[in-house]
Specification:
Radius of gyration: 42 Å
Helix content: under 10%
Number of helices: 0
Shape: elongated
Length: 529
């Protein structure tokens, strides 16, 4: 095995090992200012006719590694295809002190954090009392529950008897005065408390930073071994963060766990891209087949630029060979999508919930980047609160609801065809008995008096639809007619006072609760002078 070491400023930064070929590569590096783990490398060339394996190692020791193939180890083996070009990316992270989480190791006891759970320190020897939704700080969990695995420790940690109520925060804390546009590492340790010999449910912890979920983990039985959970978070333009841990498994029985060593530390970040070209050695009358993507045009080969696909005859000294250049198309697509507020667009590997334009790059079957642009429009959701009353026997038939009972109802309903998102309608419906409508008429009236000087009806005018009010003399002559509610007879006919006599009335109306029914009242009364 031939080992090539690259020396930059007398400091060894990266090494590459390979099997009997020559490697050509270039790299650019972008690092956080004053980051100690910078990476830099020079150019080389590979000539080989078959696929090969190349091993890349970051020589500086970093706390975390992230390669473009998803590997997180310091050294990674890449399978390279002959006569191809590759871009290999390495991100390295160094963890910087101090820990910004107050009392993340719980050595100061029950302080420095918040929780929706109830603090409970059960006395030693007590056989019950530590229940669902309880927690405590201890270094001996057998004091709390003798069914827990002993796992003695000289250090304190928090234990939780997970709740059966959903969406309750196990642990939460807010950290201020962070640096914007900076990477941070959230770390915590967790382990199951129950014996693996006993069948039980497992805690499932979902981690949130500033209300963004970083995923869930299942806490496996591991015989007193702590699981270490790491999440890398970028602060963007914020200067604070709120850390929340939620146990999403609400099934009772064995869903208990310990929590310790919660930390948020700044990361020093180094980013490096290595461009690698694998090239055939050329012999007399060779045919070199090269397949590239259209965004790689013009293609530089042997100091000559080629701007399109084709077969090219090339002479180099006494050697003549053919370059067969094929150009693969880049697939691109623009998606215009609409969702409602609170929804998430998940198609085509997107995970977006706010209005904006987003771009995803994928590798197609031709090994070319496929570009999908998402124009996402998030529509507002409106809430309409309605309180209505119907009479017993009637039916409320609106907003897609057909109801005849009192109660509170919620439905999503599009108020118009132009609405993309349905309106949330909260209805409070009252069903009441039909009222008895009482209409009273006097048996006499005197037009010359200051009171009782018109002949009128007495009724709650809010309960009726007025239709007609008529007065007749003893010979059947209609002396008064009105279809206007609140209009009464003053004892005159055609502008002249009527003589004292007996008259008759007819009153027709519809109850408001039954507009299709007409009721008629009639009777006699005296006009007095």
């Amino acid at each position: 095995m031939l080992l090539i070491d690259t020396i930059i400023n007398n400091k060894k930064l990266i090494f590459i090992s390979f099997l009997l070929f020559v490697l050509e590569y270039s790299a650019y590096s972008q690092t956080t200012e004053n980051c100690p783990n910078k990476i830099n490398i020079n150019d080389t060339l590979i000539k080989v006719r078959t696929d090969t394996i190349i091993n890349l190692c970051a020589e500086n020791n970093a706390d975390l590694y992230s390669w473009s193939n998803g590997d997180t180890t310091k050294c990674v083996a890449f399978h390279l295809v002959a006569d191809s070009t590759y871009s290999i990316i390495l991100n390295t992270y160094n963890i910087l002190e101090p820990n910004l989480v107050i009392n993340g190791d719980f050595e100061s006891g029950n302080t420095g954090f918040q929780t929706d759970y109830t603090y409970n320190t059960r006395p030693f020897g007590q056989t019950n009392g530590f229940n669902y939704g309880n927690y405590c700080i201890t270094n001996n969990i057998n004091y709390i529950n003798h069914y827990f695995m002993s796992c003695p420790s000289s250090n304190h940690y928090a234990i939780f008897d997970a709740d059966t109520i959903p969406n309750r925060d196990v642990y939460k804390t807010t950290i201020e005065n962070l640096e914007p546009n900076t990477y941070y590492l959230l770390t915590y340790q967790i382990r199951a408390l129950n014996s693996p010999q006993i069948e039980h449910e497992k805690p499932v912890i979902e981690t949130f930073i500033n209300d963004s979920s970083f995923g869930t983990i299942v806490v496996e039985d591991n015989n007193c071994t702590w699981q270490t959970i790491n999440y890398i978070w970028h602060s963007d333009d914020t200067t604070s963060c709120r850390i929340r841990l939620i146990d999403t498994n609400i099934t009772a029985g064995g869903n208990d766990f310990g929590l310790d060593n919660i930390s948020l530390k700044k990361l020093c970040v180094a980013d490096d891209t290595v461009n690698i070209r694998i090239q055939y050695p050329i012999a007399e009358n060779d045919t070199i087949k090269v397949s590239i993507c259209e965004n790689e045009l013009p293609f530089l080969f042997r100091n000559t630029e080629y701007t399109s696909a084709g077969d090219y005859s090339i002479e180099e000294g006494d050697t003549t060979f053919v370059l067969q250049l094929s150009v693969n198309q880049i697939y691109s697509d623009t998606i215009n999508a609409d969702i409602c507020f609170g929804e998430i667009y998940l198609d085509d590997n997107f995970n977006e919930s706010t209005t904006g334009t987003y771009t995803k790059n994928f590798t197609s079957i031709n090994n070319c980047d496929s570009i999908i642009v998402l124009n996402l429009n998030v529509h507002d959701i409106y809430v309409l609160n309605i309180e209505d009353t119907i009479y017993k026997g009637e039916v409320f038939n609106r907003y897609g609801l057909i109801l005849s009972d009192s109660g509170e109802y919620t439905v999503k309903y599009r108020l118009s065809a132009e609405d993309f998102c349905p309106t949330t309608i909260n209805l409070i419906l009252h069903v009441i008995e039909r009222p008895e409508i009482e209409v009273y008429f006097p048996n006499a009236f005197t037009p010359s008096l200051s009171t009782n000087n018109v002949f009128r009806y007495y009724v709650d005018e809010n309960e009726i639809y007025f239709l007609r009010f008529e007065i007749f003399d003893r010979w059947g002559t209609k002396v008064f007619y009105s279809e206007k509610i609140g209009e009464y007879w003053d004892g005159t006919y055609k502008g002249k006072p009527c003589d004292m006599s007996t008259f008759a009335y007819k009153f027709l109306y519809s109850p408001k609760y039954d507009k299709n029914t007409v009721k008629e009242l009639s009777g006699e009364f005296l006009l007095l002078r």
